[in-house]
Write a structure and sequence with these properties.
about 90 residues; mainly alpha; DNA polymerase, domain 1; 2 domains; two-stranded parallel ribbon; 2 strands; about 55% helix; rod-shaped
C-alpha cells in the first residue's frame, strides 16, 4: 500500500509540473507580428487558414502596415469572432 501511495504522489507531481510548464510555454511564446508575418506564420493563429492569411498579406501590401491590431478587422473575412480569438497572440511591432 505504501508503494502505491508513493507512486500516486509522484504521478500527481509530474502531472502538475507538466500542467504548469504548459502555461509557462504559452505565455513565453512570441506574438505574431501581423505587419511582417508570412502566410505560414499567420496560419499558426487559431481560425486563420491559408485563404485568410493570404487576404491579410494582400491587405497589408495594398493598404500598408497595420497601425493597431484591431485594424486586422478591416481584412475581409476577419471579424470580431476571429479577432477576439487571436488578439492576445498578435502584435504590430
Amino acid at each position: 500500500m505504501d508503494v502505491i501511495r508513493k507512486v500516486s504522489v509522484v504521478l500527481i507531481v509530474v502531472a502538475l509540473v507538466s500542467f504548469v510548464g504548459g502555461f509557462a510555454y504559452a505565455e513565453h511564446k512570441a506574438k505574431v507580428n501581423i505587419n511582417t508575418a508570412t502566410v505560414e506564420e499567420l496560419m499558426s493563429l487559431k481560425g486563420i487558414g491559408e485563404r485568410k492569411a493570404e487576404s491579410i498579406v494582400e491587405h497589408r501590401e495594398a493598404v500598408g502596415s497595420f497601425t493597431t491590431i484591431d485594424g486586422l478587422k478591416d481584412v475581409k473575412g476577419v471579424g470580431d469572432g476571429i479577432y477576439n480569438k487571436i488578439k492576445d497572440m498578435i502584435a504590430i511591432e
